[in-house]
Description:
The protein folds into two domains: 2-245 and 458-472, Rossmann fold; 269-454, Rossmann fold. It is built from 18 helices and 18 strands. It has helices at 18-32, 89-92, 103-121, 136-145, 174-178, 183-189, 197-204, 213-218, 229-234, 269-281, 305-317, 330-342, 355-364, 380-386, 397-402, 423-437, 440-451, 457-470, and strands at residues 2-6, 36-42, 54-64, 67-76, 83-87, 127-131, 156-161, 169-170, 190-191, 194-196, 207-210, 239-241, 292-299, 321-328, 347-351, 367-370, 390-394, 416-418. The strands form three sheets. A nine-stranded mixed beta sheet has the order 3-4-5-2-1-6-7-11-12, with helices on both faces. The protein has a six-stranded parallel beta sheet with strand order 15-14-13-16-17-18, sandwiched between helices. A three-stranded antiparallel beta sheet has the order 8-10-9. Bound molecules: adenosine-5'-diphosphate and alpha-D-glucopyranose. Adenosine-5'-diphosphate binds at residues 17-19, 21, 296-298, 325-327, 353-355, 358, 377-380. Adenosine-5'-diphosphate binds next to helix 1, strand 13, strand 14 and helix 13.
Amino acid sequence: MRVAVLSAEAVPYSKTGGLGDVAGALPKALRQVGQDAFLITPCYLQTKGEYLWQTAIDDLSVDWRGGKYPAKAFYSEANGSPTFLIDAPAYFHRDSIYGYREDYERFAFFNLAALALIKRLGSAPDIVHLNDWHCGFAAVKIAHLRFWDSYWRNTRTVFSIHNLAYQGGFGAEELWKFGFSSDYERNAFAFNGYASAMKAGLAVSDMLSTVSKTYGYEMQTAENGYGLDWLLRQRSNRLYGIVNGVDFDIWNPETDKEIGAHFNADNLDGKLECKRQLLEQFSLPEDLERPIFANVTRLTAQKGIDLMMAVAGDILATGAYIISLGSGEQQYENFWQRLRDYAPRQVGIFRGYNENLAHKIEAGADMFMMPSKFEPCGLNQMYSLRYGTIPIVRAVGGLEDTVENFDAVNGTGNGFKFREYRADKFLERIYEALFAYYDKEAWRKLQRNGMKIDNSWQNAARKYVSLYHKTRS
Ligand code: ADP
Ligand code: GLC
């Protein structure tokens, strides 16, 4: 099948979170399982020049705001699949990837430019695979065009939800300007008196998916549906949960170019060296016996930072280290800074985004904390499993689906899970993890159980292929 994957971010061209990891890896994995997949994503100021291999189209003309808007497209295969990067500096050459009042306009443009590009490339795709609200515009355009432009007649859309909390809302009057003028199109976006790009994608796409089975159920409840649970319930026969994979070309402790020593499930010596280097990097005393609790995340309420704040003192009281990499809300950044000031010999922090450190932490830490409020999939717990770093997680979304509680008697499981969103429940699991940590044999067992799991993208890609087939049934 010919598959066009559209995403607002994709590794290595751009990344703010897990969506980037997924969109970079999926088209490559689809090709590995025999599909003719390619990626379309914006070219940002942040996209490194070395990834822009050549100009593919220098006179792309996009129907936009009642006229023709000139854009370019670069070509690359730096992610392992053919990729077209839409270049429109006024929209994408900015200090950050998201966070502008008119983000909806920037991504509406990206969608229409992507459709113009696809048509220019010739043969129509069987599937256009859309990701999150940034791609809701294309879902509506294709659904509409299908009826009067024979080029799109056989194209089907799959819309993947990575995070329902971000919906791309804006004033419905803008739709006219972007060329969404028919009743059908405007109804698709209509949501509580304004326009929602997420709602549009959910309403009109041929098939819906999300990034874990459990989140697929959770999003149909009022608590996690962000006002769209009714629509998801209505379309639940078209909604599938497929857990993300891990790109082992990037996240593999045997070959990872970002870390100081390599290791695998049968020989973990290199991990100890990674731990030593990690402590050194954060100027912490080199006591390799003491465990390192780590966390790498966007600092937002979603990630359960307040639970981490509540237990940090208790963790430090056990003598353990805490290492945290992240940036985001000021209150959370301030907390980590205060904790570091309070216990400079036990706490290491880095505020900001740092790819290399993320790898070093996965490799060198002993436990990884993810007490998320909600977590559609979560990638770090899967990276942790691969790197012999034991995840301590809340049993929601993808965390529920990928982490199995350790059973010391039978030696099964790969991490520690708690259910209620409560600090004391989290702390219980932390103490259990510490207990296991000091029992060397139990810990090895836990590490091996996690490291042997095959969370490869090829598995997930095969599931997407069968979903693509379902769009035609
Ligand atoms: P989300 O997409 O909700 O942020 P995920 O767990 O799916 O959560 O993915 C987060 C991705 O972003 C992981 O690859 C993680 O390593 C990376 N990441 C998050 N914060 C940082 C940071 N401060 N520096 C480097 N990488 C980060
Ligand atoms: C979102 C979710 C995260 C998921 C990622 C990739 O950012 O918050 O849980 O892993 O998308 O699907």
